[in-house]
Amino acid sequence: MTRNPTQVVIVVTTSRKEAENDSELKEFFECRETAESLRNTKRIESISAEDVAAVVLIGGHGCLIDFPNCEGLHKLCSNVWYRSEGVLGAIAQGSVGLAYMKNDRGEPFLKNKKITCMSNEEEKSFKEELPFYVEEKMEQLGVKVENQQAFKPNVIVDSQRLITAQNPQSSRQFADKLHQTIRQYAEKV
């Protein structure tokens, strides 16, 4: 049987406070089509890595609460990376979802990898109480973080299939690089 992974799993989480204070985000969640899509959302644990070409972790302060203890997410990302040889992408705070993944030897997935994530400077500018700053947490975990100037686009590709972006200003470049990498992946399978 030939595998042909075609799904791209996009993981989005948000804090209630973000949704209440961001008019665009509020409008997004109040949209009828969005509400319908969210009603039909699959649980992470029900997704088979064999069907997945890529997992994309979208940032937001909800990631700081939801991603660290989401073993289903860590397992899906690990299986997509190691078993399916798929693509992983993370933007801004979404990178924290990669921090708790393990390789087959039980070592941190991000060991010896270069990534970028929301910088301490960027996080502090929001003047919100957060459980932790992503850049600081990554450094505590021994991850090599390569951030650039605050609020400027920065996208890093490591191992040809790991794409990370520093902040929302990186969205266009991140999406372009993800699209290009997923297309290359699809041509190989």
UniProtKB/TrEMBL annotation:
Its EC number is 4.2.1.130. GO terms for molecular function: glyoxalase III activity. It catalyses: methylglyoxal + H2O = (R)-lactate + H(+). Keywords: Lyase, Stress response. This is D-lactate dehydratase. PANTHER family: GLUTATHIONE-INDEPENDENT GLYOXALASE HSP31-RELATED, PROTEIN/NUCLEIC ACID DEGLYCASE DJ-1-RELATED. Coiled coil: none annotated. GO terms for cellular component: cytoplasm. GO terms for biological process: methylglyoxal catabolic process to D-lactate via S-lactoyl-glutathione. Residues 36-178 form the DJ-1/PfpI domain. Belongs to the peptidase C56 family. HSP31-like subfamily. It comes from the Eukaryota.
